[in-house]
Amino acid sequence: MNWISNYVRPKINSLFSRREVPENLWSKCDECGTMLFHRELRDNLNVCTNCGHHMHIPPRERLEALFDGGVFTQIKVPAPIEDPLKFRDQKRYPDRLKAAQKASQEAEAMLVAEGEILRTPVVVAVQDFGFMAGSMGMYVGNAIIAAAERAIKLRRPLVLFSAAGGARMQEGILSLMQMPRTTVAVEMLKEAGLPYIVVLTHPTTGGVTASYAMLGDVHIAEPNALICFAGPRVIEQTIRETLPEGFQRAEYLLDHGMLDRVTARGDLRDELATILRMLMGEGPVVHGDLPAPAADEGAEPATAEPAPATADRG
Questions:
Q1: Each residue of 4-14: pLDDT tens digit?
Q2: DSSP letters of 110-138?
């Protein structure tokens, strides 16, 4: 061996060898197949710049884009009983929860926060489809009740972003009980004379659609979102007929009177502020740089880590 083999050749190879590119720099659009650079995709709120397809967006990113200056205060949600049914399928239920928490960096399938949207104070609840398909369990019920109680205390409207595959089977009947619990929470808002706006995102299905997701004063959906109780494939197999094109999609439901708006994600901020200020009897929307909202009692600063929960009944 000599210095040519030991030094020169490896040096030349290193100069011309291709650098390894991290896999997470690019995302593929599910609709058109376009490869999208991660920064460009994030700047466009996870909407495909080629075809306009609305991809999944984590709840914190949605809240940062929604609130003035990206500033919001997270609201505490009481933790329900852990694994009340001692459920086990291929994995233990607590193991599934830990895996979902690690993957999403959130405590559960719903995040509740307060802040301002174009100087309009509001409480917002966001369901995370990335956490066990956004399934509705006892925590989600507690989150909606906490959001409603906070909105009533502060005399603010409540905006809820729904995204779920239905009830959480690992909690059985306790999961289904969240349907009447959340319905009562919505009724509390209406008795207090406060607006309740629902933004239905892809997908919103099952018991979520049969309860709090369709009880809003105004229903807005993101483009092409699937909104249903039973999915189109189940219906098609049951009635043995071909369904209309776009059946149970947001535009189809808008045409048939089940929705009030279909609004692109980039326009939701202005749309929500305009509707909320009209319903609250306030002046027109104000644009511009805004100060961060002051923290209130009963809330905690937003954090990327799962919030510690206190034991409580579901």
A1: 665 556 666 66
A2: EEEEEEEETTEEEEEEEE-TTTGGG-B-H
Can you give the length of the chain in residues?
314
Amino acid code (one letter) for 191: E
Contact 135, 165 (CB under 8 A): yes
Domains of the chain as residue ranges with CATH: 25-55 (no CATH), 57-301 (3.90.226.10)
Among 128, 19, 28, 74, which residue's Cα sits nearest to residue 308? Answer: 74
Please report, in angstroms and rounded to a whole number, the separation of the first and last CA atoms in the chain: 72
- Contact assessment for residue 259 and residue 224, using Cβ atoms and an 8 Å cutoff: no
DSSP-assigned letters across all residues of 235-277 = HHHHHTSPPPTTTTBHHHHHHTTS-SEE--GGGHHHHHHHHHH
**Model confidence pLDDT, tens digit, residues 124-160:** 999 999 999 999 999 999 999 999 999 999 999 999 9
Amino acid identity, position 90: Q
| Peptide bond just before 203 cis, omega within 30 deg | yes
Residue 221 corresponds to which amino acid? A
pLDDT at residue 48 greater than cutoff 80: yes
Taking CA 186 as the corner, what is the angle to CA 200 and CA 157, rounded to the nearest 5 degrees? 75
Q: Which string of DSSP letters, residue by residue, matches 202-241?
A: EEE-GGGTTTGGG--SEEEE-TT-BB-SS-HHHHHHHHTS
Residue where the block lists tokens 């083999």: 5
Residue 125: closest CA among 137, 143, 107: 143
Strands 196-204 and 299-301: unpaired
Contacts of 192 (CB under 8 A, 6+ apart): 151, 152, 155
pTM of the full structure: 0.83
- Encoded tokens for 131: 């956490």
Query: Packing angle between helix 138-154 and helix 178-191, nearest 10 degrees?
Result: 10
Q: Are the CB atoms for 88 and 170 separated by under 8 Å?
A: no
